[in-house]
């Protein structure tokens, strides 16, 4: 018999809370190394600029100890509890994790955005502390408690897919058909995790666990595959990148930096396949408690982060005065053109759009006029230490597609978000002679530095989904849909898919 190791519940809470703060501002070094290589070899100017912003944002977030992305994520915890461990606490283990989430996300020095709603069906009221987490536990031999925490953003989590294939069907073929349908809302370049086998829920679980593995595609390509599974990883990595989707869906050479695959025995009549993408934030870390006290992770060596200089690219951008913007100027913007926005803009995302739509349907006046304005799809992090606003990157714009025609009818001139727009939204943009601009998903701290002032102007009860007015200075965006309905998310990937097929 081994003596029992006693781990204090408070040590679990403190360690997990510290790990959640850590992953909010430190990228894993393996991801930065692979993204840096992608930046060096990228030929698409738009994709290269997007990767540059992600890398620059990562270094800024690490130095400033502020979130990489404004969507600080749904917390998922994977715990391996040694069978010789006893946790000394008055609550259950999951409750300890939930309390750690509250403590981390309400940290006064680096508050993280509360994104969780308690009732998923009806009221959908924000819990205000980002709890509860999703917790998975496993009993294993040993005398330690190992916890891996991940913070999964909604943009990538919403793109999770599942299918049960016939036993003889090709997994690769299904993946190659599925990835282009995900759009860019999952913020590539990232990682694709595949779970194959087990049951429906097991496949989804191992797919998510696969995303926690170290990124090693560069090493795998250098030494060559040793197993059929490694051959499949290389094949999918090369074939997904050959789709030309590229960073932020703008078209380019790198859509994924790695493909991870986990398998499990399954029923002879089944082939369950789960696909979960990981975004450019890629937040996760592992801690091990042994009863000696709380655990704190050491900061990474930031010398591995590349120094990105973007002055030359900035010089190519057109400066736009939002306070004097006209429909004629909007009509002059070209697809893929870089803009720097200056002046006052409004914000609004899902809940604000739903509320405005209800008001318009009832014939009521909106609390703030949208005529002649630009609206930014964002739910920012709360500010600290003199910030005008916390990290404030874009949310996925397709969720606002259902409101686009109606909202443009108020006289709105342009929208800012991330990823592609659907066909109906593109048609509405062209019909109203408006435009759609994109900011880089995964560059939230960088974008927030362009916001010089912020105030809530409507729907304060919605929290981070309230309508703000931002005053911005040289906020970097790219024209994604023009007043004529030209979309770079259609033309960019098609162009680079052809280039890649030709050998670039």
Oligomer: single chain
Cα-to-Cα separation, first versus last residue: 64 Å
**How are the strands of the largest sheet arranged?**
12-13-14-15-17
As a percent range, the share of strand residues is 15-25%
CATH class of the largest domain: Alpha Beta
What fold name goes in the CATH topology slot of the largest domain? fumarase
Structure description:
With 504 residues, the chain is an alpha/beta fold. It has 3 domains: 1-27 and 68-151 and 286-291, 2-Layer Sandwich (Dihydrodipicolinate Reductase, domain 2), CATH 3.30.360; 154-278, no CATH class; 311-493, Fe-S hydro-lyase, tartrate dehydratase beta-type, catalytic domain (fumarase). The protein has helices spanning 9-25, 29-41, 45-64, 93-105, 154-157, 171-178, 200-210, 217-223, 228-241, 311-315, 327-332, 350-361, 404-408, 423-431, 444-448, 488-501; strands spanning 5-8, 74-82, 85-88, 134-140, 145-152, 161-165, 190-198, 256-266, 271-278, 283-289, 318-321, 338-347, 374-376, 414-417, 435-438, 451-458, 467-481. The strands form 4 sheets. It has a 5-stranded mixed beta barrel with strand order 12-13-14-15-17. The protein has a 4-stranded mixed beta sheet with strand order 4-2-5-10. The chain has a 4-stranded mixed beta sheet with strand order 6-9-7-8. Helix 1 packs across helix 4 and helix 2 (29-41) packs antiparallel against helix 3 (45-64). It is globular. The N and C termini lie far apart (64 Å). The model has no long low-confidence stretch (mean pLDDT 96).
